[in-house]
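Researcher: Quick one. two chains, 684 residues in total.
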Amino acid sequence: MVNAPKVDPELVASVLDKTETGPVIDEKDWDRGYINQTIRDLVEKYDITWDKNFYGVLADDALADRVFAAGFELAERSGLYCVDTNRRMVWTADELNQVINNAPTVVTAGEGKDQVTFKKRAVEENSRVGVIGGPYGIPFPEDLFVPVVTSYANEPLLDIVDLPSLQTTYGYSIRAESPWDQLAVWQEAGLTFEALERAGRPGMPIGCANSAASHLGELTTTSYGGFRQLDWHHNSIMSELKVSYADLIRAVHYVHTGSVSHNFYNTIFGGYVGGGDGMAVPIVAGMILLRASLWGESVNPGPSHAHLSCNTFPAMIPSQTVALQALARNTNLITSGFLRPVSGPCVKELFYEIAALVIAQVPSGISFTKAVHTATGRFPMHCTPLEARFAAQVTHAAEGLTRSEADPIVRKLVDKYKDNLNTANAGKPFTEAYDLDSLSPTNEWQGMYEEVCQEFELDFGLML
Amino acid sequence: MSNWESKQTEFTESILAGNEQAAVALARTSLEEGATPVEFFENCISPSLQDIGKRFETLDIFLPEMVTAADTVEKVNEDVINPAVAESQAGESMSLGKVLLATVQGDLHDIGKNMVGLMLKVNGFEVVDLGTNVPPADIVARAEQEQVDIIGMSALLTTCLPYMKDVCDFLEGKNIRDKYPVIIGGAATHPEIAEEMGANTHGGSAAEGVEKCKMLLGKL
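Model:
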C-alpha cells in the first residue's frame, strides 16, 4: 500500500514539466535581465521607496501591498531558473493565485506531548509565535553533538530543535554526494534521538538533516528508522530564484513520504537584487515560488548581506518588515523570521542584534522565529542555547506589539550594534561559553544575558 | 600626459553607466595624445576599477553596477588596449596574474565566487572561471592547460571541503604543488580550514581574497 501523497501527483508532474519545457535562457541573462532589470523596473513601477537612512519597522499598509504586487509580478514575469536544464520555469497569474490562496494556514510537527502547531498570523496579531532553536548547521565535533543538541532541547521555550552539522563521521571526512553523506546523516539521526531522550522530549520535532548538505542526506534518513514524517524537513532554492533538480528531488520525496517540509530562500542584499527596496520584491516572489515548486507547509526569507553574511544590517531591516507584511496581508503563507547576527557567544551585541530583528519581524506577521545562526554560522561551535532562549523570550514579549510600538525599540537596539558590524566579533565557542558538565552558561555569558534582560525591562518596559 | 585625475573621473562614470562608446573613445583619445597602453591602464583603468571595487565593498554600489563596469572595461581592453599592446614592441603585460576560480564538486552556489571573480578583474587579474560543481581532477587539468598563477576554490557546504583537499593532494601527486598557490573561500571555510585542506591561504571576503592573491604573487 503506497502512502497517499500530500500533493496531487498530476500537479507535481505539471511543475516538473516546467523544468523541461520552459524557455531556454543563459544564466547571465537570468541574473541581469530577469532578476536585476526586472526588479529595477518593478521598484519604479510600484513606487517602492522609503528613507534610505531609516532602519526601523515600516508601517505603511499601502506600501506593503505595492511590494506584494511587485513581488507577485516578479514571480509571474520571471518565475524560477532551473540550473540543471537552463530553462525558466514559468507560472501563470492564475496558477500563482491558487498557490497563495490554497497554501495551508496551519502546520503541525512533532509527536505526543512534544507536538507543536504554528498558524498563519496577520500583521500586528496578538497571538503566539513559535520558536525553533538550534545550531542551524554550525559544525560540531562528533563527541559534542549529543551535549549541544541536548542543551538546546532542554530549553522549554523552544518548540522545535534544529541541528548542527557533524564535522566528521566516525572520525572520517564527510564528502558531499557520496556514501559518506549517508553514513553521516544516519549517525546524526541516531545521536539526535539520543539527545532528545536525554532531554525528556522524544517527540520534539527535529529540523533535519544538517550533516549532508546534498539531497542524499535527506533522502537517506527520511526513511525507515530515520527522521520521522512529523519532523521538520528542510528544503530550499538558491539565490537568486534558482532551483536545482536536487531541490525538486527532495520536494517530491517529501510529497510522497508525507513529510512536513520547511522551505527557505536567501536573497543577497547588495547582489543582483540591489539594496533594501529591491530586496523586498524577490523576498515576496521567492516565498510564493517556494510554495509553487517545493510544496512546503511554511516558508522563510533569510536574506544575507553581500559581505557580512548577516541580516541584521540596518538597511536590511525595513525591507524584511515590509516584505513580511506584504505576504501576511495578501497570502495564506505561513512565514518565519531567521536570525543571522554577526556577533557570537559572550558578545553583548549578539543580544541586541537578535532583539532588533525579532521585534521587527513579530509585528510584521511571522508565525515563528528561527533562532539563531550565531556569528552568521561561519565559525565551528560558535553558538549556544542561551541566545536561542533569549530570542524566544523576546519573541513572546513582542507578540502584543504594534509596528509603531516596535519601531522606536528596534531603532534604539540597532544604534547599540550598528557601528560594530564591520568588525565582527564571533565571540567564544560553545565549549568556552557553556559548562559541559551542567550544560549551562558560564558565569560570564549568564551575567551578560541577565544584564541585557534588565536593560530591556528598564529601557523598553519589556519583561523577558 | 597630464590631467589623469579628470580623465579617471570621466572614465569611472562611463564604465559605471555601461557607456562603452564613451569609455572606448576616452581610451582612444588618450592613446592618440601620446599615452602608452600601460600608462592608460595604470592611471585610468586600474584606479577607476579600484575605486569601484571599494564602493562595492561599502555597498555604495551593488553587484550589477560592478558587473557593468567590468564588462565595459573588457570592451575597452578588446577594442583599444589589447591591440595597442600587441603592436607595441614592449609587449608588457598589464595583468597582475591569472586566477582559476571554481566552486568545488557537490556545490552549486556561485554568487560569492562570482563576486570574488569580479573583484579580481577590477583589480587587474585575469580570471578563468570554471563555474560550479567542478571535480578536483578538472580543476587541476584546467590549471595546467590555462597556465594559471593561482588556483582559487569556493565552497558554501562543509561536506564539499574534502574536494578542496583532493585538489591539493592531486597537485602534490603530480609534483606541481609549488607551481600553484591555492586560496580557498566561501561560507564553509576559515583560515584553519585552509591549513587543514592544504591550501596556502584563505579569503574571508571578496576584498580580502584580492589582497591575498596579490600577496601570493608578491604584488603587495
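Chain B is about 55% helix and 10% strand.
Researcher: Thanks, that's what I needed.
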